[in-house]
From TrEMBL:
It holds the Pfam family DHH. Residues 15-153 form the DDH domain. This is Phosphoesterase RecJ-like protein. Its EC number is 3.1.13.3, 3.1.3.7. One of its GO terms (molecular function) is 3'(2'),5'-bisphosphate nucleotidase activity. It comes from Geomicrobium sediminis.
Length: 318
């Protein structure tokens, strides 16, 4: 599939790269890292599309592309498991589509797919594709590409701490570091917390509780977001605020949106949570997933399901 990706890119003059809605560093990193690789090594027209995300604007901003341009283009979709999460409806107009993703396959929406869950991140896939496939064909990587790909790997591995981090991940990071990345600058931007967000974190930490099975829930009301002047998107940075809590096995963050529904983020140190997310209009990785809840009752159901998963979980059998 790696060879096929290179062959497919070579056949097109116009390439548009998409990724998932509500982008995270890996979505941006894989999208822009690949775009910049193609720009550096070919004369093709390359565009990146989707909504801009203020908290990640230090990584990149998106391009405007007219609908005509899609019709002759190759569209590559990075880091997006199902078509409903693609942050560009016009992807379907493309002459050809190619999916590159490390999420479990739930929707085979593209003409060709390179899907491999053994990679920590789609950014690691792009890095290893460069090293193993593009570089032997004479491609080079510039610093812009290396920086965003590194950010993507750091984001999805929780700074090389999550169990998705492998020896291959570190080798990929090494390939990127060879280009000369300003790590202090990158980490400062990735993990900076504006004062309002830090104060909201303080309030949430003050009220956290832990169930007998090691399940915690962080609830954030629309009122709290308004009081602290934090957006729903910005609040996502707080999902790991309690990750070092002793005895914590799995947890959920439930953020009320303006329409009264809740954005749900589930995290785990063992029990599988994406199957729970799938029951609530979401999905993701086994240990990190997202979903939605329509009511406080649905939140209680999810917390009960987390407790059940934590209760069933026996680390000795894993
Ligand atoms: Mn990812």
């Amino acid at each position: 599939m790696q060879e096929k990706l290179l062959e497919t890119i070579e056949r097109f003059d116009t390439i548009i790269i998409c990724r998932h809605v509500r982008p995270d560093p890996d979505a941006f990193g894989s999208q822009l890292g690949l775009a910049e690789l193609i720009r550096e090594n070919t004369t093709k027209m390359v565009y990146t599309v989707g909504e801009d995300e203020r908290s990640l604007s230090f990584l990149a901003t998106m391009d405007e592309v007219d609908t005509e341009t899609f019709k002759d283009a190759l569209v590559i979709i990075c880091d997006t498991a199902n078509r409903g999460r693609i942050d560009e409806e016009r992807y379907a107009l493309a002459k050809e589509t190619f999916k590159v993703d490390h999420h479990p396959e739930i929707d085979d929406y593209a003409d060709a797919s390179w899907v491999d869950t053994s990679y920590s991140s789609t950014s690691e896939m792009i890095t290893r594709w460069f090293e193993e496939t593009a570089k032997p064909n004479g491609w080079k990587m510039n610093q812009t590409s290396a920086r965003v790909l590194y950010a993507g790997i750091v984001g999805d591995t929780g700074r090389f701490r999550h169990p998705n981090t492998t020896e291959h991940t570190f080798r990929a990071a090494g390939v990127l570091m060879e280009q000369g990345i300003d790590l202090p600058e990158l980490f400062r931007n990735l993990y900076r917390k504006p004062l309002p967000l830090l104060r909201l974190e303080g309030e949430l930490l003050r009220t956290v509780s832990l169930s007998e099975y090691g399940v915690a829930a962080i609830r954030v009301s629309d009122e709290q977001l308004k009081q602290y002047e934090v957006t729903v998107n910005e609040s996502s940075a707080l999902v790991n605020a309690i990750s070092d809590l002793e005895g914590l096995l799995t947890w959920g963050m439930f953020v009320e949106q303006e329409d009264g529904t809740y954005r749900v983020r589930l995290r785990s140190k063992g029990p599988i949570v994406n199957t729970i997310a799938e029951k609530h209009n979401g999905g993701g990785h086994p240990l990190a997933a997202g979903a939605s809840a329509n009511s406080k009752e649905e939140i209680d159901t999810i917390i009960a399901e987390l407790n059940e998963a934590a209760k069933q979980f026996n680390p000795k059998t894993q």
